[in-house]
Amino acid sequence: MSIQAINIKDKQQSRQLEIRRMTIYKQSKIIEAADEQGQIYYIFFHEDQYLNYVTSKKITKRSYVKDAFEKGVTLPPPHPLIEIVVSSYPHFKKQNFNELFKKLQQQYSFQETALIASYFESFIKKDKLADFIKTLFYKDRRDGKLLSCYRILHILKDFAPNHSLVSAFSGDLQFTKYDERYKHGDETFLAKDPIYVERKLYSNKHHELSFQKLMSLYKEQSRWIDMIAMYITRVVHTQTSNDYYILHSLIDEHFISMNRLRLLEDLYTRGLEVEPLRQDLLNLYMEEEKLEEVLTFIGKHELTLQPSQSQRLIKIVKQQEITANATPPEGLRKLIVALFESKDDQAADFLHQAITSLLNERGLPYIQEWAQPLRDISLANPILQKVDEMNRLIEDPSEQRRLGELYHYFHNPEQAIECMSWDMELREEDPEPVQWLAKLYHELGMDEEYKAYQQLYIDMVKRA
């Protein structure tokens, strides 16, 4: 069952929120949700660890949250990645920021604590956050941890480039030795600063080497949710089957069938157009026995079915009640072809049902075009010949009775009545069109008209 709502708790008060979207951006995940009154909430995670939630009417133009939803991988609910993130939490408890920042210093390095603090830029005054990061810097400086100080300075420089601490220490001789190693990309040295490495790689994620290094970092840190999110962005950008296969293997590793289907539907909605995705979606729709989706998908992309797919489709049709008028015409045609190819005894009946439905909705010219791919099927010819005959007779006033009979064959009594009424006027002494009109009105349940034409027919036979 998909999760589209979450519970929050502030002191003793609980409230249910509807998830609107979630973004995955660098080390963070942010859920945007709303209550019944339309109040917006943002629920923050560092990697997969819940941090805090906040309320807001709007997000400031230049803020971490705005960047996250613009530059991150934003997912709509219901989405399996959202469910994975929230499923471990029965509710999300509100924390005082001072208490939160104290806990962070116990759980994480000061560098990572500074990074997490920067997430809340829209909800805590920037000066206050910068001053908090400044205290972390000086704590490490007092302990002689100069490399840690340098890394915290990088966080502050990204967050508040004009802060006095940045100006004061940017040219500090104690830090210049680190500047050179960072500038020249000393990989052995930088491996000990994954926050910096991730930031640099993320900004160049569409570059092949940067992307592969970023994936290696995520794999090393066991961040498979982030790997899937990044491959979603990657494959939509590259539109290559190879990237799709890699993403698909990650999805298969971590998700069951129904969740895989929703992940692939999300890729399809984002504009991924590779053929393997279409085939996988088709097979998953069949696996889940989603007949309408199968037929819609087949028709939209004019997919050619493999023999195994045709057999599976027929099996689903036999298990479910399907009506031609609720099925997309292109998908319906594919189904009928599959039925004829398998020599199924329902094929002709279903073709008849399909033409009946299309005749009511689209008319004869459309059916003629729609039926072209079926004309090579000999068992379909008797029905298609009737359609061809109707097309020939439609402009012939002297053949309206026969046209009416054919409309009746395809269960279109209204059109049949028009034809028989014309024929009755043309042949005033002939009781047969009158008999047909009585029959047609009776089938429509129009008793008054039925009785009138039935009596007229009796009178005409008596006079004959």
Description of the molecule:
The protein is an alpha+beta fold. It folds into four domains: 1-95, no CATH class; 96-203, no CATH class; 305-393; 396-464, Serine Threonine Protein Phosphatase 5, Tetratricopeptide repeat (Alpha Horseshoe). The chain is built from 25 helices and seven strands. The protein has helices at 64-71, 80-86, 97-107, 110-118, 126-142, 146-159, 164-169, 173-183, 187-190, 194-203, 208-220, 224-238, 241-254, 257-269, 275-287, 291-301, 307-319, 329-341, 347-361, 364-370, 381-393, 400-409, 413-426, 432-443, 447-463, and strands at 5-10, 13-25, 28-34, 40-46, 49-56, 73-75, 92-93. The longest helix is centred in the N-terminal third of the chain and has 17 residues, at 126-142. It is elongated and about 120 Å long.
